[in-house]
Design brief:
Blueprint (H helix, E strand, L loop, with lengths): L5 E5 L3 H12 L3 E5 L5 H4 L8 E4 L1 H9 L3 H5 L2 E4 L1 E5 L5 E5 L8 E5 H15 L2 E3 L4 E5 L4 E4 L4 E3 L2 E4 L6 H10 L4 E16 L12 E6 L4 E6 L5 E8 H6 L5 H9 L1 H4 L5 H7 L3 E9 L2 E2 L3 E3 L2 H4 L8 H19 L3 H31 L5 H16 L7 H7 L4 H19 L10 H19 L9
Parallel strand pairs: 1-2, 1-12, 2-8, 5-14, 12-19
Antiparallel strand pairs: 3-7, 4-7, 5-6, 9-10, 10-11, 13-16, 13-17, 14-15, 15-16, 18-19
Helix pairs in contact: 1-5, 1-12, 3-12, 12-13, 13-16, 14-16, 16-17
This protein binds flavin-adenine dinucleotide (FAD).
Flavin-adenine dinucleotide binds next to helix 1, strand 3 and helix 12.
């Protein structure tokens, strides 16, 4: 084990809390500072009511820290996407290549409470209502809004999209840092579909999507029989819909089958806050051998691949793996973290943007559905050689930037196989196998990787 250090973590959200558990278990003296009050006191399971999908890269560190079995009990399995057309017709797309593969939906608030509990149980000191204001990077002192100051050996900034840690690094690094926020023109609001006679009103093992071009509605099951519904629309529509009756007219027109099951949709829309989205890019993610940024603080992304938290958890995993290998050598740990994990976070942010078009627009498109069916057929026929890009992101531990790289090769193979194809059953499997062996297998061999699934 490495020598114990005094560690300050800014942000007791999902990523900061998981990191705190991990570092405390390594024997460090860990202080976790959180701007908000303790969400567990108010209403367990509250916080932001968003529910999140956990997949392999997020499950791995939970499993390694002995937390996955507990977390699993507060998740619901989601096996595929169910698309709702304007006419109310349904089309189903499984996520995995067979029934053993699924995603896990969890309430963000409930997961945050569980991780806060686990951090405290491990011996982490959590200080709520403590907003990080300033960092003196030379003296290694963190100052909080209430005027208190703490010295540290190491500091981790898991303080989200508007990270104060990141801001302090930028102020000190000046032109040696690069920082960019790419605002996204689409905002969102959460709504609820309550349970119906004590049961789920729609299939509870699917992510429901109403793709409508540049706007969409999504529904993910909660454990109490309800669905959290998220409506994504161009920013300017939120202003347009301030006119009396305008929102109701719009929602009834595009989401008729959902309206029938959402008695309070107008009230939900009026009462709930408008959330905005964007991409954060920062370079470097580290400051010397003393500070690292994690999660949304350095790679906030749009939520359309369901990987924001998962990629933040993979930051924790990477740091832990590095600490196991390099023990006290934080210069090497931080250098490697920046060198390997940053391209991964940036690539996931890129793919999250691409997935917006896929979910909003393409999921209802016949050509896209045909391509997905061909992809699924290849996964089933050549399981040790071919995995869809979605499968590689969600069911393997292959870093995101490498998935993005091989995804481009796979795209070309699929383009060629789907050209002039009208029925996925007609795909020429001999030709497909030849292309996979010539173009895809060599890539995996060269990288010493396998497209097979992470088992947990
Ligand atoms: C609609 C939507 C759906 C999503 N769906 C998914 C999904 O399905 N799967 C997935 O993996 N991800 C999803 N995400 C992304 C996911 O929510 C984020 O990536 C994740 O919450 C990031 O965790 P974090 O700990 O880095 O940041 P946060 O969760 O933002 O936590 C940061 C914490 O730091 C605190 N803080 C902020 N400033 C300070 C300060 N100065 N001092 C002290 N504390 C501070 C905050 O109060 C907060 O508690 C979704 C996001 C949205 C908006």
């Amino acid at each position: 084990m490495d020598a114990p250090k005094k560690i300050v973590i800014a942000g007791a959200g999902l990523v900061g809390s998981l990191l705190a558990v991990a570092l405390k278990k390594r024997g460090h003296d860990v202080y976790l500072f959180e701007k908000r009050e303790d969400i567990r006191l108010k209403n367990r399971g509250a916080g932001r009511s968003i529910n999140l999908i956990i997949t392999a890269k997020g499950i791995r560190p939970l499993q390694q820290l002995g937390l996955w079995d507990k977390v699993k009990t507060i998740t619901s399995p989601v096996a595929g996407r169910l698309m709702h057309s304007t006419e109310g017709e349904l089309a189903y797309q499984p996520y995995g290549k067979d029934k053993t593969e699924c995603n896990h939906s969890v309430s963000r608030g409930e997961l945050n409470c569980l991780l806060n509990d686990e951090a405290e149980k491990a011996g982490v000191k959590i200080l709520f209502n403590s907003t990080l204001k300033r960092l003196d990077l030379d003296k290694k002192i963190a100052t909080f809004e209430n005027g208190e100051s703490y010295s540290y050996d190491l500091l981790f900034g898991a303080d989200g999209t508007n990270s104060a840690t990141r801001q302090a690094m930028i102020s000190t690094l000046g032109s040696k840092s690069e920082y960019k926020v790419e605002p996204f023109g689409t905002d969102y609001k959460e709504m609820t579909m309550p349970s119906l006679n004590g049961k789920y009103a729609m299939d509870e093992h699917s992510l429901h999507i109403w793709p409508r071009g540049n706007h969409m509605l999504m529904g993910l099951p909660n454990r109490d029989g309800s669905f959290t519904m998220t409506l994504y629309m161009p920013k300017e529509w939120f202003d347009k819909f301030k006119a009396p009756g305008a929102f109701e007219e719009y929602f009834r027109k595009y989401y008729a089958d959902a309206v029938a099951l959402m008695p309070d949709f107008v009230k939900d829309y009026e009462d709930n806050a408008q959330g905005n989205l964007g991409i954060v890019r920062m370079n470097p993610w580290v400051y010397g051998d003393q500070i690292a940024l994690l999660g949304d603080a350095c790679h906030a992304m749009v939520p359309f691949f369901g990987q924001g938290m998962n990629s933040g958890f993979s930051d924790v995993q990477f740091l832990l793996d590095q600490m196991n290998t390099h023990l006290d050598d934080y210069e090497t740990i931080m250098k490697n973290y920046n060198e390997f994990q940053k391209p991964s976070g940036d690539a996931m942010a890129d793919m999250s943007l691409e997935n917006f078009t896929e979910m909003c627009d393409k999921v209802g498109d016949a050509k896209f559905l045909l391509r997905k069916k061909v992809e699924n057929k290849l996964e089933k026929t050549f399981p040790s050689e071919f995995r869809s890009r979605y499968g590689l992101v969600t069911y393997t531990l292959i870093p995101y930037h490498l998935v993005k790289e091989v995804g481009m090769i796979q795209d070309k193979v699929l383009d060629s196989l789907c050209e002039n194809l009208t029925d996925p059953e007609d795909v020429n499997l001999d030709h497909a196998h030849k292309l996979i062996q010539e173009q895809i297998v060599p890539w995996f061999t060269k990288k010493a990787l396998s497209p097979t699934r992470f088992k947990f």
